[in-house]
Amino acid sequence: MALPPPLGERIIAINVVARGGGADIPMSALVTGLGGVLAYMACALFYQAGERRTAVAVLNSSQQARAAARAAAWAALLAALWLFAQPHGWERGVAIWIGAVSAAGILSMLISALRPGWHVASGAAAGAGAIVLATAATATGAAG
Fold first, then answer.
1. SS3 category, 22
2. For 63-116, how does the pLDDT look when each residue is reduced to its tens digit (9 = 90+)?
3. Neighbours of 34 (CB within 10 A)
4. How many angstroms separate the Cα of 89 from the Cα of each of 15, 69, 110?
5. Where exactly are the structural domains of the chain?
């Protein structure tokens, strides 16, 4: 009877694999990271779409802009769900997505409570991070 692999081999981690002098991050790690960033961006958008909580003047004065922010947040959540399901399958992807959305929501509330002025900037940084990770995933997918 074969023994199970050690715990370190069973834990899913981002492994950096050296290839030809450079480093290449596995595609599943990039896609999972992109899903996490989109989940945080969605939580920040949901928070800013609240009528009394927003720090953005456009969202504060316009019901249509708040509705657009909520629609963008739902689109980001659905995109994150689809991204988590790609490398892990739907059975594990949904569970990982729920965990990522929970962690992103807790982080979003923590930032909004401790540093309210940073909330909009952190959401914008998440959007920029999503663009960088999507570009890296596209380049890795094309190269690999």
1. strand
2. 888 899 899 999 999 999 998 888 888 999 899 999 999 999 999 888 888 887
3. 22
4. 20, 29, 31
5. 26-143
Would you say 38 and 80 are in contact if contact means Cβ atoms under 8 Å apart?
A: yes
When mean pLDDT is compared across 8-22, 24-38, 74-88, the lowest value belongs to 8-22
First vs last Cα of the chain: how many Å apart?
37
User: Are the C-beta atoms of 74 and 42 separated by less than 8 Å?
Assistant: yes
Residue type, 90: W
- Could you give the angle at the alpha carbon of 64 between the alpha carbons of 123 and 124, nearest 5°? 10
- Beta strand 17-19 pairing with 22-24: antiparallel
DSSP bridge partners of 22: 19
User: Tell me, what amino acid is at 86?
Assistant: Q
In whole angstroms, what is the distance from residue 98 CA to residue 64 CA?
Answer: 28
Q: What is the pLDDT of residue 81?
A: 92
CA distances from 125 to 27, 96, 119, 141 (A): 22, 22, 10, 24
Secondary-structure percent of the chain, ordered helix, strand, coil, rounded to 5: 75, 5, 20
Residue 126 tokens read as 């998440």
Tokens of 90: 């739907």
